[in-house]
Amino acid sequence: MKTVILGGTRGMGRAVARALVERGDSVFLLGRQSSDLEKCAKDLEHRSAGQAQVPTAICDLEDPSGFDAALDAADEALGGFDTVVITAGLFGTQEKLEEDPEFARRMLTVNFTNTVVFCENVRRRLLERGGGTLCVFSSVAGERGRKPVVLYGSSKAGLSRYLEGLDHRDREKGLVTICVKPGFVKTGMTEGLEPPPFAGTPEQVATRVVRALSRGEPEVYTPGPWRFVMMVIRCLPRFVMRKVGF
Ligand SMILES: NC(=O)c1ccc[n+]([C@@H]2O[C@H](COP(=O)([O-])OP(=O)(O)OC[C@H]3O[C@@H](n4cnc5c(N)ncnc54)[C@H](OP(=O)(O)O)[C@@H]3O)[C@@H](O)[C@H]2O)c1
Fold it and tell me: What is the pTM of this model?
């Protein structure tokens, strides 16, 4: 695969990039800080035992004017990419987002509006070349309206619905859309939060995502038990959701 990764400088994106390079795929990294990109590209080149060159370009989800140039650079370096993985996103606790409306606006814009704008650019490019794979990290937080994640969860709910719509409409045209819904995963994003049962690691998630990329699975809950946790949460009636604190 010739894969572009937006968000590969940290957490789950970095683990996915490592897993792909280690199995011999070509990877292009997009991110917002050149020093981080260079450091990660060197790490990936080292892991591929010198076999891979990992080019990079700047792409900030807060600045859609740069999306075209970033994807052009990836296309040129990879000779036409066939897969795009987006793990980039922002998180804030409900408390922090309510205290800081400007941060809440940025989080909503990055996680929903600008991620969808970026995906639309990718979708057009992949369909023009007959198809490809678009794999985007949403969250189990988007499955139900829940007290601790009212704002963050709503950004991911919108993203999940968009990806589901693409899967329904464009799969037969050759565009494989994969919506990854991680549960709690121990990364910089969740630092300082108490890990619940079934908390996972970026490496666990990466292994599962690489399998989903090979199989073209439309929806992935990871780590695995979160599929069953969310099955239960989806069934809870509204009066129960109003009472419980999770
Ligand atoms: N961790 C969890 O428990 C969990 C659970 C469910 C869903 N998720 C979702 O899974 C994805 C990956 O999460 P993670 O835990 O691996 O997060 P992370 O370690 O905090 O990494 C987030 C990545 O997003 C990038 N990013 C943030 N804002 C950006 C922007 N404006 N433009 C471009 N890149 C930007 C960061 O780049 P910099 O290096 O420049 O900061 C970083 O590479 C996210 O979408 C998150 O919402 C996480």
Answer: 0.98
